Amino acid sequence: MINGETPNGIYYHIRERNFTILQGENSLDFLNRITTNMIQKKTDGELNFTLLCGASGRIEDSLEIIFSEEGVIIIGLSTNGDEIRQKLVQGKNWNERINVLNGDDPLTFLTIFGEQLTEIAKSFNLEMSQDETNSWFERDSKLIRYNNTLPTSIDLILQTESLSNFFDSEVEKSLKISSINTWNKFCIDNSILQYNEIKSSPLPFECGLGHLIDPNKGCYPGQEIHARIESRGKQTKFITKFVANTQLQSGKYRSEDGKKIIITTVSIIEDKTYGIAILPTHFQGKHEIRINDNILTKLYIKSF
Description:
The protein is an alpha+beta fold. The protein has 7 helices and 17 strands. The two termini are about 25 Å apart. The protein folds into 2 domains: about 1-235, Probable tRNA modification gtpase trme, domain 1 (Gyrase A, domain 2, 2-Layer Sandwich); about 235-304.
């Protein structure tokens, strides 16, 4: 039992996301000037993930790119969509005709998760199969994606103005709003990054996103820093999951030997804390560490 919720329930969580829609013939070229890897136009709903970094090489946002009839939809983790759009505009040449539209208010991203999602999937005409995992489909003015998580989940992007009608429909009436504690546990179990993991502006290699750096791509903000780190093996931090037999909050801690530990996301169940943390590489390969939380607390380390 988690905060009074039954583990077998079906829950939804409205996720904080920023949305930008690009319209114009050169939208893809424009986007590829500033991202850390090359975005390919895909019409089958296949996923495109990339990063937006600053000159220091540190992450400013983690982006998902979807190609739709409306244009190129950019979904970011950052809570400051206006700031991200301003950075996107910096990659625009003076003679390009590209519309950069704010989708923060018009669009909502929500995730449904729990056991027995078959009826929910049927209401979206969605076949829950391995072949469709992580691909977006357009259904009745919604973007829908089935995820092979534990428990299974369905992502939806829909117009914000249609939310009330969505929850009034027969099947969706059974959905319960998730507590942040339950949602965090779901993300921890499935190694899903949230804004918590990037809001301190880590380097991509420090939070499990190094695979989104293409060393063969041309110039982009932060490229020189990334190349230097890769060539010299200078990574100093890594991301991990942990369990502690006491209640902890997210925040900054010190290890027993004085190293800085950042706990980014936690879920507290009874007297245990499940969480995600960014640790110095000094601890890589260790199964447990001790941190100072008034008393010494042991973290049992699990791979991310």
